[in-house]
Amino acid sequence: MNERNASLDFLRFAAAMIVAVPHLIIFFKLSDHAVDLEIMTSMGVEVFFALSGFVLAPLIFRIVTTHDPVYENTRVFFIRRWMRTLPLFFFSAVLHFVIFDPDWNLHAFSYFLFLQNFAWSAPSYDYFSVSWSLAIEEWFYVVLPLYLIACRRYIHENRPLNENRVFIYTAAFVLVFIGLKAVYPSTGEEWGAELRRVTVFRLDAIAFDRMLLLCAPSIAIWTLESCCYCCCGSGFWPSGKASTSIFLLFRSFGTDFAPCLSR
């Protein structure tokens, strides 16, 4: 179905404003509350992660849960995903480098493979730092489908997975990256640069929202809220609060998920 969902469109707009407006205020030094504004932008990004989890989950699940050719579904998913994001990103990156850093270096080229913050903090002098969240999303949409395809092929002899198995494998995926954050020797003083904006520590953020999508119909709302609140803390953990907020908002207004999830 191609029917649009007004609630999701509103949330996209609200999240974009939460990210863009505080950054403009900080850039033009219009407020003395830069820390508070940074926290607002962080929550806006988490909402974007949550939206990605809800909207694109069925496309990934369809790859491993149907009898359709896995290769063809995967190819279509990658092409559609990349054509929506990569052309504009590459144009913006080139324009940014030409204006702010005509002398290109090896670090500049890392942006075109989304490696600028893959397992390390982006340099403090970084001139395109706003792309960190897109790098997380792009790597996630490569890693999770390939991981689920491997589970289907090598564990289930290429038989389609049911929703229970998808949930179990996605939960294992999430736990691995939660474990990475738990063992990382961070002091907490630079959690934004060391953890929140580093790809390998945030691949679970969108996957967590997919888990909610799978279990939400059969779990009470109070259980979701409690579990997500425990899992989320200052951006270290998956975007549980954002996910729960969206889920509770839709449930409270009786919003039908089907139109927005089928795109």
Label this structure with key terms:
mainly alpha, single chain, disordered C terminus, about 260 residues
H and E string:
HHHHHHHHHHHH
Q: Outline the biggest β-sheet.
A: none
Radius of gyration: 19 Å
Mean pLDDT: 76
As an assembly, this protein is single chain
Number of domains: 1
What's the total number of strands?
0
Percent helix: over 70%
Shape call:
globular
Task: Give your account of this protein's structure.
The chain is mainly α. It has one domain (6-261). The chain has helices at residues 6-27, 34-65, 70-100, 106-110, 132-155, 163-183, 191-196, 199-202, 204-215, 221-231, 240-252, 258-261. Helix 2 crosses helix 11 (240-252), helix 3 runs antiparallel to helix 5 (132-155) and helix 6 (163-183) packs antiparallel against helix 9 (204-215). The radius of gyration is 19 Å and the shape is globular.
A few lines on this structure:
The chain is mainly alpha-helical. The chain has helices at residues 6-27, 34-65, 70-100, 106-110, 132-155, 163-183, 191-196, 199-202, 204-215, 221-231, 240-252, 258-261. The longest helix has 32 residues, at 34-65.
Write the layout of secondary structure elements.
Blueprint: H1 6-27, H2 34-65, H3 70-100, H4 106-110, H5 132-155, H6 163-183, H7 191-196, H8 199-202, H9 204-215, H10 221-231, H11 240-252, H12 258-261
Helix pairs in contact: 1-2, 2-3, 2-5, 2-9, 2-11, 3-5, 6-9, 10-11
